[in-house]
Predict the structure.
Amino acid sequence: MRRERKKIFCLLSITIGLLLYPIAANADTYAFNVTTPASEYSYSVKKTNSEQKFYVRGVSFSKSGKLYCRSESCANRNVYGQTAISAENPVSSGEYVNYAAPNGLYRLSFYSSVSGLQVVGYYTP
């Protein structure tokens, strides 16, 4: 009986740990919808991790062309990173120049040489 309780407790602990792991590891992701020409900033969003990369994922592209993305700290314009996505390569990451502090506000700006390119996607600062 005691051995069965230990087994159940051990399995329950492992299950709870596996269920909670993704919650601790994930950063906040924000949706965007942009149509070029656009160099406007997205709204400010909080960076909740200390990773020195940001991620952009496009899920819908209205036509061919690259969307250039720049993630920038709202407090310090010297903290930024750049990358590009397209229908052919919809997922990309960029490394920050200088230290990107967690819990700060960041924004994403967009530009493209293709006029009328509409992209719906997600951004993780």
Confidence is low (pLDDT under 50) at residues 9-13, 15-25. The radius of gyration is 19 Å. Residues 26 and 49 are 8 Å apart (CA to CA).
